[in-house]
Amino acid sequence: MLWDAGKLGKQTSTGRYSGSMRATVIYGERDVRLEEVPEPVLSSGIDAIVRVTAACVCGSDLWSYRGIAEVPEPKRIGHEFVGVVEEIGANVNNIKVGDFVIAPFYDCDMTCANCLNGVSTSCLNGGWWGSHDREGGFADGAQGERVRVPHADGSLVATPEQPDPALIPSLLTLADVMGTGHHAAVSAGVTEGSTVVVVGDGAVGLCAVLAAKRLGAARIVTMSRHKDRQAIALEFGATDIVEERGEDGIAKIKEMFDGIGPEFVLECVGTAESMDQAIKSVRPGGSVGYVGVPTGGAELPIQRLFGSNVGVNGGVAPVRNYIEELLPEVLAGTINPGRVFDLELPLAEVAEAYLAMDERRATKVLLRP
Amino acid sequence: MLWDAGKLGKQTSTGRYSGSMRATVIYGERDVRLEEVPEPVLSSGIDAIVRVTAACVCGSDLWSYRGIAEVPEPKRIGHEFVGVVEEIGANVNNIKVGDFVIAPFYDCDMTCANCLNGVSTSCLNGGWWGSHDREGGFADGAQGERVRVPHADGSLVATPEQPDPALIPSLLTLADVMGTGHHAAVSAGVTEGSTVVVVGDGAVGLCAVLAAKRLGAARIVTMSRHKDRQAIALEFGATDIVEERGEDGIAKIKEMFDGIGPEFVLECVGTAESMDQAIKSVRPGGSVGYVGVPTGGAELPIQRLFGSNVGVNGGVAPVRNYIEELLPEVLAGTINPGRVFDLELPLAEVAEAYLAMDERRATKVLLRP
Questions:
Q1: Contact present, B345 and B185 (Cβ < 8 Å)
Q2: Contacts of residue B311 in chain A, CB cutoff 8 Å?
């Protein structure tokens, strides 16, 4: 198969070619392959090379896999990883070779105005895994053996020491799903003693339950029809399960909360149906915290929101800004968000990892290179 | 002219017919008339009759006047008034005959779950002026001589004593525009030392400036092209004026705040253009507080909001919940929101009041029956 090496990580003139490694490439609908690609090389002076210890497949990777998001040409995929630093650029100061690091699902400098405001996903100099950065270097996808990390000082957070291997799944959730669930709860404004409903029982929805519990919510309802996911939700702090959906689900939720609904609903799916469920379930004056990547093209219904004073807050989660807050609790074992992984596979079986998630045989798959 | 007396306030069988009064009736586009209508009578036991001291015309009344909102049949109009209680129902306890009272732009019981949550516009038993209440009585429009007020104990707030006549314009703003501007600021989350841009220089926009100042905003930009309105905005606490609109306005605002925009934008118009201006001006992670009644049918752009983590909060303002907080400052003269009235007319000239606002010769017109 011929492919455009440039799209897959051919190094720029500022880099050097130093061999090959294996990384995941998506070719189109239901077609992901582990392939030999050029090994990453330092190129900007502020970057690092990280050997991946663990990566995973995200619900949002499935949008491409299922053909809902177009894949015009083969490209690297994956955006969640933890690993060990192998090389650093000359101007990297906060990270050293040998550090165990967590990378958020994007890169960011943590020094620009947006990063300092807590919105590192809007970093003025940041970018996304599997694409070229502003300096012309390539940031590899995470479902591979190594990744070149632009803005290493900003993007990466090192653990104080090499972590217990048993903690790796939970540390890996700080790259995305735990921080994203947390963002749903923080954006909605969840407070001590409040009432919360979580729409979505995927890894993010389950983490949102954990996040709401952590923030002191008194009552947390999970909307789920899957017994195994319900069990994790209950373990994470859910107080109630609602299996109904649509109008029945809304009626059930309203009834549970004085006939008017809960203070907060956390939308962790991204479809028009799930957002509709969230907006119609929350009480007048309440707030929807949303983190599901919007799909399907439905806009937000302003007349309904206006009439009921329902706020909508959230977006692509700035998980990098949350790592320092959540990491100590993961290291102490106070929270165990790694419980969302229910399948672990070697990187060589990445195609099976996608299939298992696509067929809902797994909630979230951890990959070991 | 023949008209359906029922639509204009014919009393139910529980009431008594006791003569006539003058009240404003809208017939259709640019056709408002002061007419003889039946005088209001008590009917539910929990209602009151208020003699109107002052009323006014709202920007939202212009939607019907301009033919943007349909008027299928003649109806009473007006929803902002202050006055003196003339009669009370047998079960009214908080209000007594002779009290000077402020009425919000809707009626509410202040005892239901939504009222107690601060969202009295979603009162489970409330209603709107110019329509029949749930008990079958008629709640008159405010642009008239008298109004029957359902849920008098909840809806009305009495001043501690008869107010200085000079304070009446400011007291009247608590019925709508001051409380609505305040809601924009509160919904956005304006805090001490924060940065705020106000889109809209009508009465609500000007009150939003005053509200942001009151909440401690450090920098408040008014987007306005009218010198007289700019002057009031500056008096109310605006620190900057921006005359540009659209893309130029957005660029100017971004530039004023570190290239990224202010923390909060208060949308006080309700058109697609003004909401677009608000959403594109606010910084990533910021919040839009909106109170302009949405017109034009444009929904909220979820992809843009998601990508930039911009929250949208607000809606039809629960001004009744704010009266106790704002009233003491009006009575003490600490705030003087009545400055938004720039024309005062006798009720007999209500048609001219509408025309003056329609032609933008007046920002807001006060009517004296």
A1: no
A2: 187, 311-314
Same domain, B232 and B272: yes
**CA distance, residue A56 to nearest chain B CA (Å):** 23
Number of residues in chain A: 369
Q: Are A8 and A138 a contacting pair, CB within 8 Å?
A: no
| Complex-level ipTM beyond the 0.85 threshold | yes
| Least Cα separation, residue B294 to chain A (angstroms) | 7
CB of A105 within 8 Å of any CB in chain B?
A: no
DSSP string, B165-185: GGGHHHHHHTTTHHHHHHHHH
- CA B122-B61-A310 angle, 5° bins: 25
- For residue B247, what are the contacts with CB-CB under 8 A and spacing of at least 6? none
Whether residues B27 and B153 share a domain: the answer is: yes
B345 three-class SS: strand
A272 touches chain B (CB under 8 A): no
* Interface contact B121, partner A, CB < 8 A: yes
Distance CA B15, CA A352 (A): 75
Longest Cα–Cα distance in chain B: 65
Highest mean pLDDT of the ranges A293-297, B18-22, B28-32: B28-32
Residue B251, burial from CB neighbour count under 10 angstroms (0-12, 13-18, 19+): middle
Q: Which residues contact B197 (CB under 8 A, 6 or more apart)?
A: B220, B221, B223, B242, B253, B261, B262, B264, B265, B266, B278, B281, B282
Cross-strand partners of B276: none
Element (H, E) at A333: none
Q: Which two tokens stand for residue A298?
A: 């439905």
Rounded to an integer, what distance in angstroms lies between the CA atom of residue B301 and that of residue B190?
A: 23
- Helix or strand run (H / E) with residue B369: none
Question: What residues make up the domain containing B66?
Answer: 6-176+338-368
Q: List pLDDT tens digits, range A115-168.
A: 999 999 999 999 999 999 888 899 999 999 999 999 999 999 999 999 999 999
Q: Give contacts of B302 with chain A, Cβ < 8 Å.
A: 275, 294, 298-300
CB A87 within 8 A of CB A140: no
Whether B352 contacts B184, CB under 8 Å:
no
Q: Is residue B302 part of a domain?
A: yes
Determine contact, residues A34/A331, Cβ cutoff 8 Å.
no
**Largest Cα–Cα distance in chain A?**
65
- Residues B26-75: pLDDT tens digits? 999 999 999 999 999 999 999 999 999 999 999 889 999 999 889 999 99
Domain at B135, CATH number: 3.90.180.10
Measured between beta carbons, the chain B residues lying within 8 angstroms of A306 are 290, 293-294, 314-316
CA A119 to chain B, closest CA, distance in angstroms equals 6
* Number of structural domains chain A divides into: 2
Number of Cβ within 10 Å of residue A255's Cβ equals 11
**A288 is written with which tokens?**
């929807």
Q: Are residues A24 and A153 in the same domain?
A: yes
Of residues A118, A312, A316, nearest to B312 (C-beta): A312
